[in-house]
Design goal:
The chain has one domain. It is built from 2 helices and 2 strands; from the N terminus they run H-E-E-H.
Length: 133
């Protein structure tokens, strides 16, 4: 014990295997434990970084997919607008055609009435001509 005390005052100690050490056995044990805790912490940090990296990658993929769907939706909306404009233009063309055909029908009706009147006048003239003879 006296030799250990003399060595202890000089900063030298014996460990559990009776090997001469510069650090006290308790300090050496705490240092080893701290080293293990640090190693575990570094491992957990690396694992956390890996998880965060894969999460960021997943979020990026979702963002790209969302952007793609957004572009598809915009394209579909633009297509619908274009179809609606085409239908509107087609409807206007058909309305103009209907108006044109109505005017043509009215001309034919007037022409028909005029021809009917002429036919009646000619039939009356023929009847009068036949009765005079």
């Amino acid at each position: 014990p006296m030799a250990q005390a003399a060595l202890g005052s000089a900063g030298l100690h014996f460990d559990e295997l009776n090997k001469l050490r510069v650090l006290e056995p308790e300090v050496a044990a705490q240092t080893a434990q701290l080293r293990e805790e640090c190693r575990a912490f570094v491992d957990k940090t690396a694992e956390f970084q890996k998880i965060v990296g894969s999460l960021i990658e997943l979020v990026d993929q979702l963002a790209k997919a969302a952007e793609s769907e957004k572009m598809k939706a915009i394209g579909a909306r633009n297509l619908l607008k274009s179809i609606a404009k085409q239908r509107e233009a087609q409807e206007q063309q058909l309305q103009a055609l209907i108006a044109e055909k109505k005017m043509q029908l009215e001309r034919y009706r007037t022409e028909y009435e005029t021809l009917c009147k002429i036919e009646a006048d000619q039939n009356e003239f023929i009847d009068q001509f036949i009765f005079q003879k």
